[in-house]
Amino acid sequence: MLAVQLTEWGTEPQLREVAVPEPHGEEILLQVTAAGLCRSDLHVMDAAESSFDYPLPLTLGHEVAGTVIDAGPGADRSWLGEAVVVHGIWGCGRCRNCARGRENYCLTLRPRPDGRLAAIGNGLGYHGGLAQAMVVPAARFLVRTGDLEPAIAAPLADAGTTAYHAVHQHADVIDESAICIVIGVGGLGHLAIQILRHFGAGRVLAIDNRPETLPAALRLGSDAAFADLAAALPALDGGADLILDFVGASGTMESAARALAPGGRLAVVGSAGGRLAVGKRIGLAAGWQVDAPFWGARSDLEAVVDMAIGGTLHVESTTYPLTDAVDIYRRLRAGTVTGRAVLVPPLLTSRAPKRVEASRQISSVAREVGR
Prior knowledge:
The chain is an alpha/beta fold. It has helices spanning 39-46, 96-99, 150-168, 189-198, 214-219, 229-232, 250-258, 298-310, 325-334, 351-370, and strands at residues 2-6, 14-17, 28-36, 58-59, 63-71, 83-86, 121-122, 125-126, 133-136, 142-144, 179-183, 203-207, 224-226, 240-245, 260-268, 289-291, 317-321, 340-344. The protein is built from ten helices and 18 strands. Strands 3, 5, 6, 9, 10, 17 and 18 form a seven-stranded mixed β-sheet that branches. A six-stranded parallel β-sheet has the order 13-12-11-14-15-16, with helices on both faces. The protein has a three-stranded antiparallel β-sheet with strand order 2-1-4, with no helix packed on it. Strand 11 (179-183), helix 4 (189-198) and strand 12 (203-207) form a beta-alpha-beta unit. Helix 3 crosses helix 8. The protein starts with a strand and ends with a helix.
């Protein structure tokens, strides 16, 4: 099968031919129907060898939708034939955070003693979904998507889940009088605007220095859109209650912190390398908070899938063939991709459909025998 793999740190990925993986134990095999591209992939590509505890070659792709076509002998075979999206955090399922339903903060995913980041899921340490097929460790990492289009479902795995988690954890300050700001109307920010509306935010302001993104922000539910935060200050009426920074540069973080209302909160989601000094009596409003949420739990993925199925969450995505992956990554790096870029692999033409059909026939026979 075809797969887009990183073969050397600090280089572009390559389109390669690799073996179709075999599922063992509780593993599930997906025929990939769509896979989103993310700027996090660029950080992995650009990293030094000492940054990640990831073996190479590595198939990229952590936003994956697919159809279950096979399962290991210990797996739940009721998933065969189901359309799914993959939760990209493969936690242990046993630690206290996993037990709390906070799999995105699984204790086993901490950095190694030498500082290298541990493998966390598909495309980020384990082979991902920029391929025609992908193995998932167990069915607990899957969420059914029903008739949802794969190009819509795939970005929900990260962009949707991360945006939802960033909003949901501050739900207590989101009401009809809340002033909320979204900085960066890209793959995550355009979803955050809609999610804030879903949570009942009174006013939502969008900030992006790319003029072409501002009409989309207004169309998706923001009350106003500005090229920079300074232009939005007169509309804040005492400051913002919640600011979601999907850029994470020093400039956006510092200006956002100073735009908070008393008791206001800043969630830094973007990873553009910014730093923010924290402390009391440094000129910020009383009671301010800052956090750096990471991804989201499986329950967050379920929530955004439900929103998308119900028509209250619209994903702005453009599809491309898997073979265009390297070129689309270049465009993503140049900042010329709006919304989410989604790659569509060619379908497996030999064993995969046969396996699905055989499984359906076996299930049908089993039902008849059960009668």
